[in-house]
Every structure is written in structure tokens, then in C-alpha cells.
Amino acid sequence: MRRRDFGKAIVSMAIWPLAARAQQTDGKRRVSILLTYAEADAEIQTWIATFVQALRELGWGNGNNIQIDLHWGGGDVGRINELAMEVIDRKPHVILANGPVPVAALKQKTRTIPIVFVSVTDPVGCGLVADLARPGGNITGFTLGEFNMSGKMPEILKQIAPQVTRLTVIYNPQQVPQVGRLVAVQMAAPTLGLKVSGASVANAEEIKHAIEKLEGESDRGVIILPNSVTITNRSLIIALLARYRLPAIYELPVFVRDGGLVSYGTDRVVQFRQAAAYVDRILRGDKPADLPIQDPTKFTLVVNVKTAKALGLTVPASLLAIADEVIE
User: pTM value?
Assistant: First the structure.
């Protein structure tokens, strides 16, 4: 069984069906999970499976002493806002939220229910928490790191595709931190001899238009920032970049496993495992206000050699030597 299929199987077994979730918890602790993404996304299923397994190892078995509810936003901001209210109405003991959009939606609706987040950049600047060391409210969690980590992406892409002199960063301005990440790439670019432009996208059609505009630009590279729009439409992105022979770097390994060139970024699996530890502490009496916001502890580099060859590129041996995963 493939890794992603295994993850989906674990989630299917671990999470109660909707009808069961609607019933009383019979004294069990309720943990609600609000996700930006679609339920059909196998990669996200793997992250959730990691979280459920980590909770089990900490003594919290779903259907035993806790009840876990899953709520899938499908990349729709309006739907996420509706789900946030649905989550609050269920009165969970703890909420796990993935990404800034669900966290912001939840914060508008509760100042008391504990919220643990993953995959959020600059939670202070976004107004989600007051301070990293002492969040001071009902929200804590795990960040994607400083903006300058995005500046590492053009450096890696340049090693694989030295002909690149111009970069297009595809991002979603609805998520404010993504603008900061674009700026970080722009600041890192001059030392690499690169000129950077941004392409904001809010749906599949805008993604298609942004990439099609780059046709025939042999010195062009692309950076795909992760958000609900790009992750939901990753198959389209990978196919278009292959069609127009554009080298690109992503943050999430799943893009590379699905045919992209290279990825570098925070290990989401580790963050979901860490989030389980915070949920455990809150269920045992700790307050989110006293649990410090934590930066990433692991970054992952994944390279797809097959895709590099298709683009006429050679991955340097030095890069392969430090890669966490190489796809032949």
C-alpha cells in the first residue's frame, strides 16, 4: 500500500462518520479539526493520520476517550467561515486549525475555546496572537518560520536551473503573510542575479492565465507558494509548468512527488505530530496562553530527477547529497 493510501485508510478508520459525530460525546473529550483543503486530498489525509496516531500514542484513542470531528473547507473561504461557526456550535474542548484562514475565522467567533494551529506564517503580524513566547489568549501553535526562509527557494532553484534570470512568484494575496514571503524572495534575488515579479491568483483560471503568460521564456523560473488555491490546483500547476518547460520550486513535497521539480520547506508531518502534543497538554489542563508559539524544527528538501531530465536539467550532486528524498 502506498504511503498516501495508508494515511487515508488510517483516517477513515480513526474518524467517526458524520451521523456518529452528531450524537452526544458520552463524556468523551471532543477535538474538532478545521482544514482549508478538500477531503479528497491524499496528502492532507496523511497529515491527519499522523496527528491521530500521535494522539493515540499519548493516550487519546478516538472513540475511546476522545471524539474527533473533521471539517473540510475545500479551498473555499466562504465555506471555511461557515464551518468555523459549525465547529464552535459543537463546543469542542480543543480545535486544531490548518493555515491562517481557518484560524482567523475561528478567532472571530470564540475567545475561549482553545485553538492549536499549524502552517501559519507571522501569527503576530496577522493579529492572531499577541506574542510568540506568551500568546496570551486562546490560540497557540506552530509557524512556518520567518519570511526569510522563502529567500532560500530561489537559491535552490538557481542551483538546478542556472539559466534562470527571471522569477515569477505565484501567490495568494488574500493570505497576508504571502505578500511578506514574496518580498523575502525579492530581497534575496539580487545576489543571485535574478529579477522577481509576482502573480496573484485566486482560482484555477487565474493560475492558468499566469502560467500561460510565461510561455517561451527560456530564462524564466517559477516559485509556487503554498495556499488553499495552489494546493487544491496542484495537478493543473504541475501540468502547465511541464507543458511550457518551466522549472519551478515548491514548498510542499507532494508537488514533487506528483511530478514537480523540487521542493523546500517546513515538514508538515512533523508539525501535525507536534500539534498533537499541544492538544494533549491542553486536554490535561494547560492553557494555550502559556504554550509558546513554536517555529519549525525540520525543513525538507525533495528533488525529482526524472522531471529535471525532462526539462533538460542536471541536478548537482551536492544538492542530491543533502536531499531528504530523491525521486528517480
Answer: 0.87
